[in-house]
Amino acid sequence: QKEVEQNSGPLSVPEGAIASLNCTYSDRVSQSFFWYRQYSGKSPELIMSIYSNGDKEDGRFTAQLNKASQYVSLLIRDSQPSDSATYLCAVNLRDSSYKLIFGSGTRLLVRP
Amino acid sequence: DAMVIQNPRYQVTQFGKPVTLSCSQTLNHNVMYWYQQKSSQAPKLLFHYYDKDFNNEADTPDNFQSRRPNTSFCFLDIRSPGLGDAAMYLCATSTGLYNEQFFGPGTRLTVL
Asked: Is the pLDDT of residue B2 over 80?
């Protein structure tokens, strides 16, 4: 099993809809979880971080963490065409390796 | 604004000709990272510095070296670039190993 798994997509949603992006991870000890947005040809941009179970909201973005199920998700409300990008889930492995492990990303397409 | 800067943004080199990529930060972060990202793949960690302590990933080729002469600057040296080294090279910084990482704009390396 990969350490951080995401559906590669593309996930296609109409403008104004809710986009739901999912990520599972393998390490029960992980404590830090991040979502990055990456436009084609650009570098990753941090959009959300979450550390405890439950929901964290920031504007149109909501991150949801369920450590028991080893699952983290990102909801984007009122999706806009400018949200079209690849969304990378990243998890810090809280063991001696310290690394931020990235999923391979989910490509989101928001149709006007 | 505090930021992570990478130069150059685009670098073209010839097969086997050494190249140096640079990264600077005004965030005063302790940790600096170098990642390699190829098309449609997750960023791959090459190495990181925690202050002056250097940490090399086990699978980072010997062809890749790094220097951090001071807190603000970090360099990636590729001694003999091969065609397979063509990629986006990303520099990131964080305050600590388990904290959010902030990426620079990246350097796109082309090897002819």
From this structure: no
- Give the pair of three-digit tokens for residue A89: 């889930």
Q: Which residues contact B41 (CB under 8 A, 6 or more apart)?
A: A104
Per-residue pLDDT reduced to its tens digit, A8-19: 889 999 999 999
Number of H helices, E strands in chain B: 0, 11
What is the reported pLDDT for A95? 63
Sign of CA dihedral B67, A49, B38, B57: positive
- The mean of the pLDDT values for chain B is 94
Q: Which residue of B has its CA nearest to A5?
A: B42
- Residues A50, A55, A59, A61, CA torsion sign: positive
Smallest Cβ distance to A100: which of B40, B41, B101? Answer: B101
